[in-house]
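Reference record
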Amino acid sequence: MTMVATLPTVEVLAAQWRATRDLSVALVASLSDADASAQSMPDASPAKWHLAHTSWFFETFILDGLPGYRRFDDRFGHLFNSYYESVGPRIARHHRGLITRPSLDDVLAYRAHVDAALERHWEALTPEALALVELGINHEQQHQELLLTDILDLFAANPIEPALFPATSIAAIVTPGWTAHAGGIARIGHTGNQFAFDCETPAHDVLLRPFALANGLVNNGDWADFIADGGYKTPSLWLSDGWGWVQREGIAAPLRWRHGQDGWTSFTLAGRRPIDPAAPVTHISFYEADAFASWAGARLPTEAEWEVAAAGTDPFTGNQLDHAGPLAPRGGTSPFGDCWQWTASAFLPYPGFRPAAGAVGEYNGKFMNGQMVLKGASCATPRGSSRASVRNFFYPHQRWQFTGLRLAKDA
């Protein structure tokens, strides 16, 4: 977390907090208790766990320090702590699906308890506590995206392949082409006095060679051509670890793609649908993105190149999450939205990085090992929570998120 010099007013912060809390509940409105309790794989979490964990965050880091606050249930700290070792013990991530109780209704009652308590204490919160509220809002927005992608993975594992939302509109058509950038010395990382996660800091200078970035994201039609040309069967295109992963896991297409008599389909939040060739490809790993770039005679951008190219673009643009309704990648020219874009950069600390003091210092720094940076935002990223300096990160084999790519090349 970054303790910023300037916080929104209490009124603005409270409105942001209420909108965020309301959206989380709206996203699960159509789920049954069984839907909200199941866990499809170790990387995912049950929907009700996300709802409870984000409430646990506000309870643990803000409300527990206020006079007269009484916890909803003392057992919840063990159930809904994620990875904060300094706070106390927790259940293993891959066992979260075993929490059949408390029920979804109980978790919603827990949220209401936490919300009511915070509403009573706005004027009593110190600047440090308000900064934690702002962190908690941004933390919950991250979990809203995880909530949606975890539901998608769960529904994809269901034999009847249910839909969470109705189908969305068709994709936008993007004119192919490249935008050149001169390179030189550029500043990346978070600047200014607004909120940022700790891993976005400190801002620092980098030296870039001239480069060009594709105007649009790689789309499904491009990816179908890659498959048809033997992309998954050509070891020279792949990094050694990536080729080993393809062989070991039998990877032959993006996650949840299936080929039938009528061509390629993909499982989406609207159920199984024919792929739209013009829509951005998603649910691909870093290994796949890198292999495609090699096949296309290009490369992945570095995170510094991506950030410099996106500088000056309004991060509110692009296809991002606005409300609990239909969502899917649609395409466009904004660097933000549709899918997170893999870069060639490892998730490592910036020069001079220091984790925040206390338990919240465990937020990002301890994950700076073996993961790759993604930039931008996805169709499931709440609008307003993205900016050019944001550094998303995943292991190179992971692909259950809305992950895709934009090509780069040397100018």
The chain is about 30% helix and 15% strand. Confidence is low (pLDDT under 50) at residues 1-5. Residues 10-157 form one domain. The chain has two domains: 10-157, 178-410.
